[in-house]
C-alpha cells in the first residue's frame, strides 16, 4: 500500500494496555488482562510488522501504545483527557509496564506512544522517569517516543499542567518525547528555544531519534529493497484470505456445550437453521475498530447458509435492542427449524474508543430474546456472542434450553465463515478467554476510576491474578470437541538454592538485585499432551506460578502466568512440550516498593493438569 501511494510505513500498533476493568471500551484492541501474555503477544506482533530485516533495517515501524496505566476512556463523566491514574509503584512494575518492557526488550519495537492520562499527577508525555529513565534508559529503546494524538495540546489546554504552550512543549521534549501526533511541537518548539526553555541540542536529539527510524525503513535509499515489488495486488491473495479464516477459527472460544455435546451440529440432521439476532448478518461489526479495508466479508448468516437452509430474523433492529416487537416472529421461526442460532452481543455503539460501558449484561432486551427463543426452539439453541469485552451471560450458562455458547470476539472479515465452521464441526474450537468474565454486580464493587489491582475491604481485586470473587468464566477458559490428558515427563528439582551476595535483610525473600541469578540453574519442565478424543484439536497449556502462601497472601497474588504453549495434536496422538523457567524472572514477585524479589518457601507450578512443588531457599557464598 505504501508502494501504491496510499499508506505510510509507520503503524501505531499494537495496543498492549492491560484489561484492568471489564467496562473499558477498547478491550477489543488488546491482548487481554495478563501482563506476561500481553507482552509476548506485543513482541510477536512487532516482529511480524517490522520483519527480521538485516541489522537495524525495518519493513514497517511498529509502536507499542499507550504508555502507561491507560485503560479508561469515557466512564460516568470521567474521560481520558482529564483522568489522573493514581497507581502504586507495585502495580506499575507488576502490571501496567510489563507488556511495554517486553515490546522494547524482546520485540525491539521502533516506537512507544505515551498516553493522554496523567499518572500520579503528571502527564505521561512529560514524565522524565517514565520516558527517559525507563523506556530509553532501563529498556534501551532504539527508536522514537511519540505522543498520543494531541496529547501535548491536551496537557496544556485541558489538564492545565503548564502555563504556556511553550512550557508544555519544553516539558515534553525534555522528558524524552521525540514526535508529536499533533500541531503543538511544530507550532511552539521554536518559541520554546527562543525563550530559553529548550536547547537546540534537545531538539536535535528528538529529530535524530525520528530520522533514524526513517533511515531504518529505507526511506532515503531510493528504493525499498526486498519489498520494492510489493503492491496492492499482494494484499487480497488467497493465502492471506485463508490466513484471515484460520485466525478467526483459532480465536473463537467455546464456552458451553451441554446436552451430550450439542455441538457440532450435523448438516444432515439439522437441515433448517433459524438464524436470529442483531449480529446475525453484520459485516463491519466483525472487524471492530482500527481495521484495514477487508478483502471480502462473510457474515454469520452467509456462513451458516453454506451448511443449511436458513430462516433469518433480526429479532432486534440494532444491538441496543430497545424493543421486543419482533420476538413473537423470532419464536415462530425457532419452532419451525431443526436448530436455532442466536447471534447477539455488542458493537461499536456499545463499546469503543471514547465509550466505556457501565453494565456487563447484554444490551437492552437481548436477554429476553435469547430466553424466549431458546424455550420456543424445536431443536438445540446455540448462542453466539460478538463483543470485545466480557459479558455476564450467566442466565444462558444455566439455562437448560441454551445448549451451547460461543464467543467470537470481533472475528474479522471471515468471521461468519469461521463461526459456521465451528458450529458445524469443520473446525475444532481451541481459543481461550484472554480475560476474566465477571458477574454483573462486579461493577458495583468499585468505580472504574479506582486503579487498585489487589483486593481490599469489600473490593475483590482485578484479573485472575488478584480477583477472589465468583466468575462467569475464568481467564484461560475454553472448551474443545476433543479431550486432552497431560503427563509429566521431566519434573523440576524439589529444592533450589538461591545464592545471595550478602546476608539477608529479610528471612522471607531476597531482592532479585541481591541474588546471584547467573548461578541458579534453569527449571526445565517436560509434559506430554495426549489427545484422548476422536478429532484433531489444539490445546493451550498455561504455566502458572504460585508463590509461598505467606508471601502470596501479603501481596494479594493468587497466581501468575509465567509461560504458555499451544500445540495442535491429532486424534489419539501425543506431543511433548518443554518449558524452561528462570528463577529470578519467573518465580519472582513484586513488592510494595516496586522491586522484584524471590520469596523463600514452597512455590507451586501448574502446567495444564500437572502440578509441581519447589522449595526455594537462600544460600550464602559463591556457590
Architecture overview:
- The chain is 25% helix and 21% strand.
- With 623 residues, it is of the alpha/beta class.
- It has three domains: 201 residues, Glycoside hydrolase, family 3, N-terminal domain (TIM Barrel, Alpha-Beta Barrel); 230 residues, 3-Layer(aba) Sandwich (Rossmann fold), CATH 3.40.50; 137 residues, Immunoglobulin-like (Sandwich), CATH 2.60.40.10.
- The protein has a six-stranded mixed β-sheet with strand order 9-14-13-12-10-11. A five-stranded mixed β-sheet has the order 16-25-24-19-20. Strands 1-5-8 form a three-stranded parallel β-sheet.
What number of domains? 3
Radius of gyration: 26 Å
Strand content: 15-25%
- CATH-defined architecture of the largest domain: 3-Layer(aba) Sandwich
Q: Provide the CATH topology of the largest domain.
A: Rossmann fold
Order of the strands making up the biggest sheet: 9-14-13-12-10-11
Show the helix and strand layout.
Layout: H1 35-50, E1 64-67, E2 74-75, E3 78-79, E4 84-85, H2 89-96, H3 98-105, E5 111-114, E6 118-119, E7 122-123, H4 129-138, E8 144-147, H5 151-157, H6 165-175, H7 184-194, H8 200-216, H9 238-251, E9 253-257, E10 272-276, H10 300-305, E11 309-313, H11 327-335, E12 339-345, H12 366-376, E13 381-386, H13 394-397, E14 402-407, H14 415-423, H15 463-466, E15 484-490, E16 495-500, E17 509-511, E18 523-531, E19 537-546, H16 549-555, E20 560-569, E21 574-581, H17 583-586, E22 589-590, E23 596-599, E24 601-607, E25 610-620
Parallel strand pairs: 1-5, 4-6, 5-8, 10-11, 10-12, 12-13, 13-14, 16-25
Antiparallel strand pairs: 2-3, 6-7, 9-14, 15-18, 17-23, 18-21, 19-20, 19-24, 22-23, 24-25
Helix pairs in contact: 1-3, 5-6, 6-7, 9-14, 11-12
Amino acid at each position: 500500500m505504501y508502494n501504491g501511494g496510499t499508506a505510510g510505513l509507520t503503524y501505531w500498533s499494537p495496543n498492549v494496555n492491560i484489561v484492568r476493568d471489564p467496562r473499558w471500551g477498547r478491550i477489543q484492541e488488546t491482548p487481554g488482562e495478563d501482563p506476561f501474555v500481553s507482552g509476548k503477544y506485543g513482541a510477536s506482533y512487532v516482529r511480524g510488522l517490522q520483519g527480521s530485516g538485516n541489522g537495524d533495517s525495518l519493513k514497517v515501524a511498529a509502536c507499542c501504545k499507550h504508555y502507561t496505566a491507560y485503560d479508561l476512556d469515557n466512564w460516568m463523566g470521567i474521560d481520558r483527557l482529564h483522568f489522573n491514574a493514581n497507581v502504586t509503584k507495585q502495580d506499575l512494575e507488576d502490571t501496567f509496564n510489563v507488556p511495554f518492557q517486553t515490546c522494547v526488550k524482546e520485540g525491539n519495537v521502533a516506537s512507544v506512544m505515551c498516553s493522554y492520562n496523567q499518572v500520579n499527577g503528571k502527564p505521561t508525555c512529560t514524565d522524565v522517569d517514565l520516558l527517559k529513565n525507563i523506556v530509553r534508559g532501563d529498556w534501551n529503546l532504539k527508536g522514537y517516543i511519540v505522543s498520543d494524538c494531541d496529547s501535548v495540546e491536551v496537557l496544556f489546554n485541558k489538564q492545565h499542567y503548564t502555563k504556556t504552550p511553550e512550557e508544555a512543549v519544553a516539558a515534553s521534549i525534555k522528558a524524552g518525547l521525540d514526535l508529536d501526533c499533533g500541531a503543538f511541537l511544530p507550532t511552539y518548539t521554536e518559541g520554546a528555544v527562543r525563550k530559553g526553555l529548550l536547547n537546540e541540542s534537545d531538539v536535535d536529539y528528538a529529530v535524530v531519534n525520528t530520522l533514524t527510524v526513517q533511515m531504518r525503513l529505507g526511506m532515503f535509499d531510493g528504493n525499498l529493497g526486498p519489498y520494492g515489488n510489493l503492491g496492492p495486488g499482494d494484499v487480497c491473495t488467497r493465502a492471506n484470505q485463508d490466513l484471515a479464516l484460520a485466525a478467526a477459527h483459532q480465536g473463537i472460544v467455546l464456552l458451553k456445550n451441554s446436552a451430550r455435546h450439542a455441538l457440532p451440529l450435523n448438516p444432515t440432521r439439522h437441515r433448517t437453521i433459524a438464524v436470529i439476532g442483531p449480529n446475525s448478518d453484520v459485516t463491519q461489526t466483525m472487524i471492530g475498530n482500527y481495521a484495514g479495508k477487508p478483502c471480502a466479508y462473510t457474515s454469520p448468516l452467509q456462513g451458516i447458509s453454506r451448511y443449511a437452509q436458513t430462516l433469518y430474523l433480526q429479532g432486534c433492529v440494532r444491538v441496543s435492542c430497545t424493543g421486543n416487537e419482533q420476538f413473537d416472529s423470532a419464536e415462530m421461526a425457532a419452532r419451525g427449524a431443526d436448530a436455532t442460532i442466536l447471534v447477539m452481543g455488542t458493537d461499536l455503539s456499545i463499546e469503543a474508543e471514547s465509550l466505556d460501558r457501565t453494565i456487563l449484561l447484554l444490551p437492552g432486551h437481548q436477554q429476553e430474546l435469547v430466553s424466549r427463543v431458546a424455550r420456543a426452539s424445536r431443536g438445540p439453541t446455540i448462542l453466539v456472542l460478538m463483543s470485545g469485552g466480557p459479558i455476564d451471560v450467566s442466565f444462558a450458562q444455566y439455562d437448560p434450553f441454551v445448549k451451547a455458547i460461543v464467543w467470537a470476539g470481533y472475528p474479522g472479515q471471515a468471521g461468519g465463515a469461521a463461526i459456521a465452521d465451528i458450529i458445524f464441526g469443520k473446525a475444532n474450537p481451541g481459543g481461550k478467554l484472554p480475560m476474566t468474565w465477571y458477574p454483573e454486580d462486579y461493577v458495583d464493587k468499585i468505580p472504574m476510576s479506582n486503579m487498585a489491582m489487589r483486593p481490599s475491604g469489600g473490593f475483590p481485586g482485578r484479573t485472575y491474578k488478584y480477583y477472589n470473587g465468583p466468575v462467569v468464566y475464568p481467564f484461560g477458559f475454553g472448551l474443545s470437541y476433543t479431550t486432552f490428558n497431560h503427563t509429566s515427563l521431566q519434573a523440576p528439582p524439589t529444592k533450589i538454592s538461591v545464592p545471595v551476595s550478602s546476608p539477608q535483610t529479610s528471612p522471607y525473600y531476597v531482592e532479585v538485585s541481591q541474588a546471584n541469578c547467573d548461578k541458579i540453574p534453569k527449571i526445565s519442565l517436560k509434559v506430554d499432551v495426549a489427545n484422548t478424543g476422536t478429532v484433531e484439536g489444539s490445546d493451550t497449556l498455561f504455566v502458572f506460578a504460585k508463590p509461598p502462601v505467606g508471601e502470596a497472601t501479603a501481596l494479594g497474588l493468587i497466581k501468575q502466568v509465567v509461560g504458555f504453549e499451544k500445540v495442535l495434536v491429532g486424534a489419539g496422538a501425543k506431543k511433548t512440550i518443554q518449558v524452561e523457567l528462570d528463577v529470578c524472572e519467573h518465580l519472582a514477585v513484586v513488592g510494595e516498593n516496586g522491586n522484584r524479589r524471590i520469596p523463600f518457601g514452597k512455590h507451586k507450578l501448574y502446567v495444564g493438569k500437572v502440578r509441581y512443588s519447589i522449595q526455594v531457599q537462600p544460600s550464602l557464598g559463591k556457590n
